[in-house]
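Record format v2
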Amino acid sequence: MKSGPKRHTTCVGLISLASLITTSAAIAGPREQAFRLHNRLAGVPPSPEILSQMETMLAQGDGEQAAQLAMENSNFYNVTLKHWASPWTNKDESFRVELNDYVATVIGMVRDNVPFDQILYGDILYTANAANGIPAYSPANNSHYTALETRAVDLKTALVKGQQSTLNPAVTEVAGALSTRAFGAAFFEAGTNRAAIRSSFLTFLCQDMEQMSDTSTPDFRVRRDVDRQPGGDAKVYRNKCAGCHAGMDALGGAFANFDWDGMKVVHNSAAVSQKFGKNASTFPDGYVTTDNGWMNLWAEGQNTRIGWQGAKSGKGIQQYGQMLAATEAFPICMAKRVYSSVCIQDMNLISDAQVASLADNFKADSYNLKNLFAAASLQCMGD
Amino acid sequence: MRLMRQVPLWTLAACLCIPILGCGSKKNDRGSKAPSASITDSDSDDAVEKKKKRYKKPIDDHDHEPSLDPDQVEKNDGGEQPGTSDQPPADNPQDNPSVPEVARLTTAVGVKNFRQINATMSALTGIPTTNTVVAPVYTQLASQLPDTNDIRSLLASHQVAITKLAVEYCDQMVVTPAALNSVLPGINLNVPATTALNATGREAINKALIVRFWGSGLSTTPDMNASLTTMSKLTDELLAGKNQNNAALTPNIVKALCTAVLASAPVTFH
């Protein structure tokens, strides 16, 4: 590394960074708070006019209004929400995915203040008007959303609320994100649809299968493709495999009628998808899925911590989604995700207690996600 | 990428700023001055070992002194589930002494992700993200830009990509009259550098760039006078050895100055 005057002039960025780190938390008046609030919510700095307005609002103690003003910026939808929801739509949880129907629906629901629990069971799908070279929505490809992204169409104004059952009549069983094309492409492809269970738990309850694993759960719903003696040792199955499969397979029936054909979600309400019969010879006495019925065997035991409400069994993905949305874990998970996003906090470092009031207010506020973003952002805008 | 050949390498080097996190002294939570933990090129092997030992703290040390030891940071961050430590968690991780220093800093400062950086540069320069010059460069660079806001994941390669993208936005800003007039109102770049970048001219340009890109009236941004001094020195270096009577030089110098301000931390951090 060179030293001397040349080195000195190369440090514009360094000086700035040092200054930012050493002063951002300590010296934050309403103007600095407004600046951070806007950057965190919209992803871009405010214009001088908006900054002044937000500064005044904060000085008057109206942080909520200041946050709402920041969220008027289109980039809250085009950047922040798009980035926030993108990892939910692929197995790798990558942020680098194209805009798709799942993400667009999340964005539209937030814009329209649609109660966000409906993301798990509502007959909702957001599209845009096909015009100016934007291809019409099709359940068989992602071209519509790809074009919206490529042309930088403002999602704040372009998205239009529709019904999945109308836009994609071939799928007669709809449940918000769980029946979108992007969800199907990621979690119905190949496999046995267990990925759909895992994804819905991970995304909306912030619980991965390792956390749900309970070896005391009865295993009578574990399907035929699970080896009961992996490596010749039945104890491994009982002490490891069954912990997840007992609960997961019992819920898996919800997705029994769904498959992915490489282009679109395939739904057959009259028959169980063939994938549910895969590797049936592994343990022929295992459970045979005959319909889309499911039961929640995790409702008892250590997983009562999820705060299950209402029905513990049902048919199809809509009732399954309703069950997840009604849990106490759902608002806590959403509060954690929002807090993590706007406060740049590692999810692993956020405790339930830390977001308890945000979650309570989110639920009491009819699951209004935009207001949750506002409330969370005010908690870390600087002192 | 045409401009890349005209802009000195300092614009890239300026942004290799990761070492700043380790260099310079910094007050710890107890108010005492912590010695530098950075290991410099001039350190001997013995000195490096001594510095490593000085900051190596036992994992079961419960005095909660913030540690700069990366091993311990890694051990505490993510390796331990909330609620399982001996110490009850504080409501706010920033106030929790058991949370490592680096983890607490992430709440205060984050680096913008690839989408935010692109949108920010677009908003500040007035050049749309769909600009036919900028858009393909962004597509090419996107995978090299930060994925998340976690400052701990920031790499030198990220900063290089940020700078490259800033070069393109500044290039387009200077050649687009409406954008140029918005960022540098009333400033004529079609005159020789001897006029446009004399003491008065350069201050006007640099100040306008800083105010536009970093904001004004913010105590969290670097000191204006110090920044102007640095930018003036930079202007001198950019002009050195060039024919300053050539009016075509002026826009190129301004593109470089623009890049320096646009690719800096007050823009890309939040």
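Chain B is about 50% helix and 0% strand.
Confidence is low (pLDDT under 50) at residues 1-45, 47-91 of chain B.
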